[in-house]
Amino acid sequence: MNNHISVDDQLKQIITPSGKSVYHLQLQRARITAIVLAMAAIMSLIFVVFAFVQKAAADQAREQAITNETRAEQNAAIAQKLQIELQQCRQLTTK
């Protein structure tokens, strides 16, 4: 006869003062650990998605800023030309 008892069976037979077997306590700890790790993974994925959304918004804002800068430079050049023309007109009218 084989009187060999597996470690799992031995753990199932050990009862803690709370009335639960050591095996069941280990399973409970393993489940809790799995849940915590799964929640951490989900949070990481949420942060990754949030980061991509923020990067896309930042890229769009950067493009808009470049466009606005170009328009501002063009408007400044037009304003400078108009100022020169206005000064020339004033000089002609004062003569």
Count of alpha/pi helices:
2
* Average of per-residue pLDDT values: 91
What series of H and E elements makes up the topology?
Answer: HH
Annotation, overall tally of beta strands: 0
Q: What Rg is obtained from the alpha carbons, in whole angstroms?
A: 38 Å
Q: Give the terminus-to-terminus CA distance.
A: 128 Å
The largest β sheet comes out as: none
Residue windows where pLDDT falls under 50 for at least 5 positions: none
The fraction of residues assigned to DSSP E strands is under 5%
Helix content range of the residues, please?
A: over 70%
Task: Provide an overview of this structure.
This protein has 95 residues and is an all-alpha fold. It has helices at 7-13, 22-94. The chain is rod-shaped, with a radius of gyration of 38 Å. The mean pLDDT is 91.
Summary, kept brief:
The mean pLDDT is about 90. Helix content is about 85%, strand content about 0%.
